[in-house]
Amino acid sequence: MTKNRIEQHPVLPIVGKEEVSFYWNKEKLFAKKDEIISSALFANGIKVFGHNHKDDSARGIFCANGQCAKCTVIANGIPVKACMVEVQENMFIERVEGLPTLPDVEGQAQISDIENIETDVLIIGGGPAGLSASIQLNENKIKTILIDDKNKLGGKLVLQTHKFFGSVEDSYAGMRGMDIGSMLADEVKQSEYVEVWRSSTALYVFNDKKVGILKDGVYKLVTPKIILNAAGAREKFLRFKGNSLSGVYGAGAFQTLVNRDLVKPSENLFIIGGGNVGIIAGYHALQAGINVVGLAEAAPKCGGYKVHEDKLTRLGVPIYTSHSIVSANGSDSVKSVTIAKVDENFNIIEGTEKTYECDTVLIAVGLESVAEFTDEAKSAGIKVFAAGDASEIAEASSAMFNGKIAGIKIVKEFLPEAKEIPEAWYTKADILKSHPGELQEIETSTLEEGIFPVLHCKQEIPCNPCSTVCPEGAIFMDGDPIKGLPKYSKGCEGCLKCLTICPGLAITLVDFRKDKENPTVFLPYEVYNYSIQKGDKATCVDVDGNELGFFEVLGAKATKDSDRTQIVRIKASKEVAKKIVGFKIQTKKVSEQLFEKIPHDHIQDNEVICLCEGVTAGEIRELVRTGATDMNQIKAVTRAGMGPCGYKTCENLIKQIFFAEKIAQEDMVLNIRRPLYVEVPLGKFANGGQ
Q: Which of 245, 320, 355, 336 is nearest to 614 (CA)?
């Protein structure tokens, strides 16, 4: 039972929970009470949930967010998404081998009335944007229903163990994401005017201005005056050989298993994609005791924050820019990954292939807004707003602030006399969602007395907690008060507040007060499941991960004010003390290249496009080359997009083939949207599921 459970974590509490028994293919296993099926299976070492009916590829997980259908299992005779359904005592769960057999429900559905509910505002999505908007609506006494398809509010905030960037004043910068999520959720749950529906999925916005919602398995109709779409985003899939193997899944799925459910899904992980999502997932993996073999980014530089990237590099994770994945290798599950250099057009450069042993390939190549409900509401003639990733992909700090703005805009629809939104808020909103700036040289401090911070930031990003928290005003923002680079003036008293609040772990303190030749360096450390203790010799590195030598550890502990960040003290010579930013924890052996030769033909026809129906790129490309530019025609011939997920994962990949075949965007005909957002048993509409 504990084989794949995380039993030690530097940030998350390990809380014992009651166990329940269930059966997997008639074998009795155990899960935590209220645990999701997919997490319970992973905890028991089960990662293959069945095989596809067409190509016999392994079923497992990809999104763990209810968006795809790769994790389908049979639970008590009913096909369900394993990532969305809780284990029940004595539940019988079976693999899906081929096409599942539909249950015999004859005579079970009895026609009855479905509850109709009216409300002023319906918010779809209980993540950072939806929660922030709810707080504004409650303060102004606007009757609101907030729905979320999970059993816990917070959205992706629930999965974030790191401290947030952004502004302290506007987006709680310096607090951990999961703590922000709990704080906002608690405030909303205590609201007088906001009714919270958890485990509730919006199915469709109908033309009669009603919204169909499956609430705890019961179908209801809600008639809102205004809709706020805060449903977030879905992860993009990627074409490569072996992309349908078990062990290939999204960064959000990984964070769900590790940070929400404390399940260790991997031993050796390789990440594809160098945006913030992929980089942060790598950091979370290390906190869970998982080896990060490497990270590949096709662009010449990572798109995520440099301080995030530097954290991984300093800990010993190699990052391969201008590299892309060639293949995931294995017969049923991932055994290794092959990457290669790419040219300026992102084409593989022959002869540059490198193969690494791993059991998981994490896909972090971007997000797509869940914009369906916005489009449906507009079509139905309902006033609709969108916020967070459902409006524009950005950081959670931006989603919170923009959710607040959206909430006030909705208030103005009901109360025109309500306060106006200051123009400065829109400027601030633009800053919070802005892309990182160009890299700058770090100024080398000339100080060699007293105690002072060394600031290792070299890129302007929305982040100001260090200047906000300094009681002496010794750190200030050079330029914009949110986005400027932090600078040190004078007056440090060594309180360590800047060091422990910095989300990028990019501040160290150097103390010359006791020893002018070998000062003490104070370092923040958040991966201390890789233990470092007094008397150890640490392999210290500079901001870019270059080794500076071995230095003695004087002590390591978290304080009552450090919010679970350990403060590690190291004695170093004055020549290098100001250069030390961290120390390596992962050995080079983890990332050694395999010498086994994996054959690669670089033929892209066998890359899977549609996970549900096992449709390959070759099948799509053949039709496009014969003149097909209508996705509905391609669907009719190949079934691509006809599976349970409703083309949520494959549409972008089909577009990529169109672009590669020089089909102009105006000549493409996109899929006609399926009437329902997710698949639902017909009986739910007959009697509300009761």
A: 245
Give 356-374 as a 3 state SS string: EECCEEEECCCEEECCHHH
**H-only helix segments in 384-523:** 396-414, 423-432, 465-469, 497-501
Cβ neighbors of 236 (< 8 A, separation 6 or more) are: 363, 365, 366, 367, 368, 649, 652
pLDDT at residue 528, rounded to an integer = 85
Residue 665 buriedness (CB in 10 A; 0-12 / 13-18 / 19+): exposed
Q: What is the CATH number of the domain that holds 353?
A: 3.50.50.60
What single-letter amino acid sits at 690? Q
Instruction: Please choose, from the candidates 642, 648, 639, the residue with its C-alpha nearest in 3D space to the C-alpha of residue 66.
Output: 648
* Residue range(s) defining the domain that contains residue 554: 451-590
Among candidate residues 363, 389, 419, the one where a domain is terminated:
363
Contact 513, 451 (CB under 8 A): yes
Q: Are 534 and 554 in contact (CB under 8 A)?
A: yes
**Token code pair at residue 603:** 């033929």
Token output for 296: 């590949």
CA separation, residue 305 to residues 35, 310, 311, 343, 362 (Å): 33, 9, 10, 23, 19
| Mean pLDDT along residues 597-602 | 60
Give counts: helices (H), strands (E), the chain: 17, 36
Contact 59, 51 (CB under 8 A): yes
Per-residue confidence (pLDDT) for residue 108, from 0 to 100? 60
Residue 366 — pLDDT band, cuts 50, 70, 90?
very high
Residue from 354, 332, 325 nearest 241 by CA = 325
Q: Which residues pair with 295 in a beta bridge?
A: 271, 319
CA–CA dist 667, 415 (Å, integer):
45
Q: How many CB atoms lie within 10 A of CB 415?
A: 12
| Token duo for residue 566 | 């350990």
Closest CA to 161 of 66, 268, 284: 284
Taking 70 as the threshold, does the pLDDT of residue 598 lie above it? Answer: no
In a domain, 654, yes or no: yes
Can you tell me the distance from the alpha carbon of 369 to that of 387, in angstroms, rounded to the nearest whole number?
10
- Do 164 and 49 belong together in one domain? no
CA distance 204 to 207: 10
Structural contact between residues 76 and 22, judged by C-beta atoms closer than 8 angstroms: no
Q: pLDDT over 90 for what percent of the chain? A: 80
Answer yes or no: is 107 within a domain: no
State the pTM of this model: 0.93
Q: Scanning the structure block, which residue is given the tokens 């292939």? A: 353
Measure the CA–CA gap between 83 and 41, rounded to whole angstroms. 10
| pLDDT digits 0-9 by tens, 112-151 | 788 999 999 999 999 999 999 999 999 999 999 999 999 9
| Cα separation, 126 vs 148, whole angstroms | 5
